[in-house]
Amino acid sequence: MYPDDFDVHLIMTSVHDVDDDWLWGRLAQPSFKYKIQEPKHGIEYITAIQDRSICESETPAAASHGHIVWDAAIALADYCQESKLDCKHVLELGAGIGLVGMTLSAMGCPNVVLSDQRYCLPLLEKNIAENFPATHPLPPRTAELQWGDDKASAAFKNVDLIVASDVIYNSSVFPLLYRTLDKIASPSTVVLFCYEVRNADLEAEFFAGLRRHGYTCDEIAFSSSQVEYPEEIHLIRVQKTERHVMA
Question: Which residues cross the membrane (predicted)?
Fold first, then answer.
């Protein structure tokens, strides 16, 4: 599948030197490097470690895909970089490896939390340790967050940006995700969902539900200077309005 000289530490800045099959083939790699265009505190690359074995208590019956950086996460990280988002308190939902949140930290965002279920936290912490030295002034931190848990959600204050990639593939958790957004987001909070279309009806149902609860949902037309994305990737900006109704 891969050329003999394919580097397991695939560097995203080499995108113009490799074809798309190489680039998207990174899913099979144990790690790859993602370029930070305007790094702060000397972090020029994020090394994404993809290691399912680190996810604790993971069983086939409740398998997670959080040990892989999916295409939508790269698209969202690229958007954050190219848009130069001005944010101070960021929460990544369903962070998995935490590429988007770590990218925002490397860009200089002072307060970034990477949240996921408990068994995903060891891999998140390993990725943070790999990329942010002990001398870094404000590394991202991890937090367990089970969607729908009001007590856990209440711990997040003054969040001005929520990011989430490929988290809307299971309709059974939509009410829980709505409730978590209700508890954490304010009308000034920007929420960015990026996803690859897998079930268009289900994804439309998710955003229709947000609109019913009084959120605006606007698609962002975005193209990256680093890579040409598959057409199935969409980026949606969500914001709470005065018409908001609790889930």
Answer: none
> For residue 175, what is the enclosing H or E element?
helix 174-184
Note whether residue 245 is domain-resident. no
163 part of a folded domain: yes
Which structural domain, as residue segments, surrounds residue 32? Answer: 9-240
Q: Are strands 89-93 and 111-116 parallel, antiparallel or unpaired?
A: parallel
pTM: predicted TM-score of the whole model, two decimal places = 0.85
Kindly write down the DSSP assignment for every residue of 66-104, as one continuous string.
TTS--HHHHHHHHHHHHHT---SEEEEET-TT-HHHHHH
Residue 67 tokens read as 């040990």
Of 62, 44, 64, 46, give the one whose Cα is nearest residue 54: 64
In a domain, 37, yes or no: yes
Query: Is 247 contained in some domain?
Result: no
- Helix (H) and strand (E) counts for the chain? 7, 10
- The pLDDT tens digits along the chain (247 residues) read 223 333 333 344 333 333 445 455 666 678 889 999 999 889 999 999 988 776 655 544 344 565 788 889 999 999 999 998 889 999 999 999 999 999 999 999 999 999 999 989 999 999 999 999 988 889 999 999 999 999 999 999 999 999 999 999 999 999 999 999 999 999 999 999 999 999 999 999 999 999 999 999 999 988 765 566 777 899 999 999 977 666 5
Question: Would you say 4 and 22 are in contact if contact means Cβ atoms under 8 Å apart?
Answer: no
* Residue 215 to residue 239: CA distance in whole angstroms: 5
What H or E segment, with its residue span, contains residue 183? helix 174-184
CATH code (residue 113): 3.40.50.150
